[in-house]
Amino acid sequence: MATDPSPSKLEVEGLAIGFGETIIQQDVSFRVAAGSVFAIMGRSGSGKSTLLKALIGLLRPTHGTVRIGEEDYWAATEARRAKIGQGFGVLFQSGALWSSMTLAQNVALPLRMLSHLDGASIRELCRVKLSLVGLAGAGHLMPAELSGGMVKRAALARALSLDPAILMLDEPSSGLDPVTARRLDDLIVELRDGFGMTIVMVSHDLPSLFAICDDGVFLDADSKTAIAHGAPSRLRDECDHPIVHAFMRRERPNADSDGAGAHHDSR
Amino acid sequence: MRVALLGDWVARLDGVEFDVPKDILRSGIGALQFDAAELGHWDSGLIALLVDLREAAKQDGVAFDEEGLPKSARRLLQLLSAPAVQPPADRPRPLLDRVGLWAIDIWTEGVEASALVGNMILRGAVALRGRAAMLASDLIEAMYNAGVAALPIVAVVGLLVGGILAFIGATELSKFGAGLYVANLVAIGMVREMAALMTAIIMAGRTGGAYAAQIAAMEGAEEIDALRALGVPIFDYLILPKVLALSAMMPLLYMFGCLIGIFGGLCIGAATLHVAAVSFFVEAQKSLSGSQFALGLAKSICFGAFIAIVACHVGLRAKRSATAVGAAATTAVVVGIVGVIALDAVLDLCASVLGI
User: Fold this and answer.
1) Which residue, A53, A202, B104, B141, is the most exposed by fewest CB within 10 angstroms?
2) Which chain B residues are Cβ-neighbours of A83 within 8 angstroms?
3) DSSP single-letter state for residue A223
4) pLDDT digits (tens, 9 = 90+) for A148-188
5) Does A88 touch chain B if contact means CB atoms closer than 8 Å?
6) Domains within chain B, CATH numbers bracketed
7) What pTM was estimated for this model as a whole?
8) What CATH number is given to the structural domain containing A197?
9) Measured between alpha carbons, how far is B268 from B40 in angstroms, rounded to an integer?
């Protein structure tokens, strides 16, 4: 019986990210436990999605390490990184479905390119993945024919294509109505429980964060670093950092009490 | 000073009153107050005036009392008090820096293009052994698009170019009673030069532009990022089928172009000089040698690979916007056509040195 070689532990240490001379975030460290739902939180423009890009191989960090299992991801060769990347499933904020293919072809492509499975097995796996996200029978549709919620679910099915050990989700509930967003949250938790995946989720959607995340890190745009660590619900109840406090309670931040740079840990 | 705001202030009808703040503040007043009792309908035209006035008053040290303004206008002015987003410092770079950056850009472009050609040779060899991660269906589809689908336009252009060559020949050669040699002119012209060159120019415009636009659009919609993030090898999946398809189809299109061009020449030769078809073909066959045909064939393969590699390279380097897709297509077509003509000149020079 084949064993899954993909590690599900993720560790970030002293990470700095930026474009050219512009620093987005620096000295960011956190550890994602296997099987947890980990949130990367922060206000718009704080570098959450950019940090995610550094975790999935799309942006080389300027400093620091990303450790997947026991392996330093960015110190590995490009070929090795591609191999490690096959253990990730990624859901992009926009869905980023391949627009010239049907949903079934979208889900099938990673399997067709990266596995030696025969056509019948691939078709069956695609059918299962699409059914899991509630899109049974929709395999023939083109991405342009889908609603916003269907695009997210189809992108989730594609992210599950290779049965990843770590699922990276960039703002999964953005642009969705509260009911659809809640259904997607439930689906994420069910998939995590079912497949035993680790989930890293970029989000600023408070209900989602409180409902499904076990742990997290809070990024701040002003101090350009992580200002709090812990489960979103605990940060809401216990963290006294003014920016985190205002964010978690949807309050207007007090300009005078901007305690940028202070480090709070509510674990 | 009390400023009375009278009547309507509608931006789309009246524009912005830029001179009013200067006129008001010219008299050297100490404070500004407002009376909006007779203010009519107003929109951003009034707010633009008030914010200009507030800034001018601040500069002149004049107190600006918003009390007399409508409450909604005061709230909008409050919104306009938020600090502006600071654009990144746009300090002019010294000439040496700019030359250095330009050189780095050129170098990077060269390295990336070389890497693409190198990758093509390495992965192309792997693909020919059937071991690349390329999908056969993608290759077949790309071959159909770059081959069968291009036949009508290659036929039309080939027929016309052959006809044009025959016209030129007929006009000049008939003066010396050598009308039959039109066949030689058309055959050599098409086989050695025009069929490969014209087909390449058509394909640079038709297929090269499409490749660049497709890849640039995928880049803009994060579709390439999705491929990278899911570990799908971009080169094998996206580029290899295109380059292989165009390199494989160009020689076939070249041969088709030769036949159609010679047929076009025959039509014009028969119509203007009343040359018999058999004589035309015999004369054309006599004038052609295998090396000329091989030269044309080699050219067409080089042109096909060049057009596809340039188009994919341009597409992958495209920025993420709608205009970038158009720009990528334009660049791919222009570089493709100019490059093909330059490459043709170099290959002709080589052929002439080799005595072909």
Assistant:
1) B104
2) 231
3) T
4) 889 999 999 999 999 999 999 999 988 888 888 888 899 88
5) yes
6) 2-79 (3.30.750), 115-353 (no CATH)
7) 0.82
8) 3.40.50.300
9) 79
